[in-house]
Structures are given as C-alpha cells and as structure tokens.
Amino acid sequence: MIAEWKKLPLLDVELVKFLRKKYPPLEYSLDSNSDEFIRDAIYRAGQREVINTIDHIIELQRKGTSNGS
User: Fold this and answer.
1) Using an 8 Å Cβ cutoff, are 15 and 54 in contact?
2) How many domains does the chain have?
3) At what angle do helices 13-22 and 34-66 cross, to 10 degrees?
4) Does the pLDDT at position 1 exceed 60?
5) 2 and 26 in contact (C-beta within 8 Å)?
6) Is the model's pLDDT at 69 over the cut of 60?
7) Which of 12, 26, 48, 69 could disulfide-pair with 64, CB 3.0 to 4.6 Å?
8) What is the pLDDT, as a whole number, of residue 10?
9) Domain span at residue 60?
10) CB-based contact 5:57 (threshold 8 Å)
C-alpha cells in the first residue's frame, strides 16, 4: 500500500521556516498567569507538532524523490 504522504503535493521547506518563525516556543515569564500560560503553551505545542509533521513529510518526500520512488 502506498504511504499517504506520497499522495501529497511536494511541500516547501520555506513553509516550515516561516511557520517556525511565526509560532516559536513560548517562554514563561514570572509576570505570566500560570493557568493562561499553560493553556497557551498546550495550544502552541499543537501548532509546533503540525510544523514538525510537515517537516517530516518534506524529509520523506526528499528521500522518496532521491530514491526514484
């Protein structure tokens, strides 16, 4: 069975760079409300996971292209 990522159009590494810059890890500040920071950090972690997944797909696409797959 063909991997699902092979059905996707080629993704651009510049997209990952842009998203990493737009959604950097959050840094805790002593002035921050703990509950609000935790909520924001959890949400940001989800955003970063999507970025990591896109980056992983790009790597798979690169390997697939270089292997002639």
Assistant:
1) yes
2) 1
3) 170
4) no
5) no
6) no
7) 69
8) 94
9) 4-66
10) yes
* Structure-token pair, residue 24: 């950097």
CA–CA separation, 17 and 35 (whole Å) = 29
3-state secondary structure of 2: coil
The string of pLDDT tens digits covering residues 12-68 is: 999 999 999 999 999 998 888 999 999 999 999 999 999 999 999 999 999 987 765
Number of neighbours of residue 51 by Cβ within 10 angstroms? 18
Q: Which residues contact 19 (CB under 8 A, 6 or more apart)?
A: 47, 50, 51, 54
Residue 53 Cα distances to 28, 30, 32, 56, 68, angstroms: 25, 32, 29, 5, 22
Alpha carbons 69 and 1: distance in angstroms, whole number: 13
Confidence of residue 5 (pLDDT cuts 50, 70, 90): confident
